[in-house]
Write a structure and sequence with these properties.
Elements: H1 9-16, H2 24-36, H3 39-46, H4 50-64, E1 69-71, E2 76-78, H5 80-107, E3 112-117, H6 120-137, E4 141-146, E5 161-165, E6 174-182, E7 184-188, H7 190-196, E8 210-213, E9 223-227, E10 230-234, E11 238-242, H8 245-253, E12 258-262, H9 263-271, E13 276-278, E14 287-294, H10 301-315, H11 317-337
Parallel strand pairs: 3-4, 3-5, 8-11, 8-12
Antiparallel strand pairs: 1-2, 5-14, 6-14, 7-12, 7-13, 9-10
């Protein structure tokens, strides 16, 4: 029985009932023969005997149950079935070439301009030393860091990486790696708590001075607290608002009010008695740090090594030790208040 373009459908149907194992290398050889126009030229370019090439193509035809090529003394002609197979063979060839290019790409010394956007607090509190070490390790990379608080358009503004905190927007043009998850708690200076008193319950926060972090729309981010099944959410009266967690930390240490701060970064100030936890038995939502980058197929080597450096930083012993200490302190506070 012949289908469209004269393809023998009986042979195809006969193979549908069983799983066929086609050797990808044979598909590559078939694509080379067609593209080069002859067995002789393809054999020379591939560096294999012409007889081997002919034998492999004959075996492929036998396995598929159809002729792929019509051979004459003067030229090769691709059959209708052969043209259908050729599309798949060229896809295999393209994937092989892409893999080889990727391997070669990774071996090239990273170089060129690397544009990175990150919050200024993140750069000063976490990544200062890492950026210096990165510049020294990769002298052929010119690092350009944007510390503006705005959310840059990576594609339109030609950024390689952006460090972002919190939830990410859906964007099919971008990819992301999770770097770290930071827990948060309420903190104030001992002097402030001695002056204004310690709030016993979340509702009492409405009688205190709050230091609020601003969202991207300019509004204060609500405080959300939970303890077991209990939930509380509100925006206590603002004594100050800012889009910088580091500034809020400094204001809290100066006695200006109560702030939501990352446990990871305030533990040294708690030990130094510059900050004290407030409502230690209550939990706040965690914040995730992400590295976002264009989701292109082949990542530039300079971007790859920078992402690797970020992951090594947050999975390294220094960050892990700080996180373990802050987690232990957080659990101890909850035990004291339970």
């Amino acid at each position: 029985m012949l289908g469209d373009k004269g393809i023998n459908m009986d042979n195809i149907v006969a193979h549908m009932g069983q799983k066929m194992q086609v050797e990808p290398n044979d598909l590559l050889l078939f694509a080379h023969v067609v593209d080069d126009g002859s067995f002789t030229q393809a054999a020379q370019r591939l560096g294999v005997p012409k007889s081997t090439l002919s034998r492999r193509l004959a075996a492929l035809e036998a396995q598929l149950g159809e002729r792929l090529l019509l051979r004459t003394t003067r030229k090769l002609a691709v059959t209708d079935f052969g043209r259908s197979v050729l599309d798949h063979a060229r896809q295999v060839s393209a994937e092989v070439e892409a893999t080889a290019s990727l391997a070669q790409h990774r071996q090239i010394e990273p170089s060129g301009r690397l544009r990175v956007s990150m919050p200024s607090d993140f750069a000063s509190l976490v990544l200062g030393n890492l950026l210096g070490e990165f510049i020294e390790k990769y002298p052929a990379i010119a690092l350009e860091v944007d510390l503006s608080p705005r959310r840059v358009d990576l594609i339109a503004e030609n950024f390689d990486v952006a460090l972002r905190m919190g939830e990410l927007q859906d964007d099919a043009t971008l990819a992301a790696r999770r770097l770290a998850v930071f827990s948060q708690s309420l903190f104030a200076s001992p002097a402030y708590l001695a002056r204004r008193g310690v709030p016993p319950e979340p509702e009492a926060l409405m009688e205190h001075d709050a230091l609020h972090l601003l969202a991207r729309d300019g509004a204060p981010i609500p405080w959300k607290l939970c303890r077991g099944e209990q939930r509380w959410e509100g925006i206590p009266p603002a004594r100050a608002t800012a889009n910088s967690p580091e500034l809020l930390q400094r204001l809290a240490r100066a006695g200006a009010g109560i702030a939501v701060l990352s446990d990871h970064f305030v533990e040294p100030y708690v030990r130094a008695n510059e900050l004290a936890p407030v409502l230690g038995g209550w939990s706040l939502p965690t914040v995730t740090a992400w590295a976002v980058f264009p989701g292109r197929r082949l990542m530039p080597a300079r971007t790859r090594v920078f992402l690797d450096a970020l992951e090594a930083k947050f999975s390294g012993p220094e960050c892990q030790a700080i996180e373990a200490a802050s987690r232990a302190a957080r659990e101890a506070r909850r035990t004291e208040t339970s």
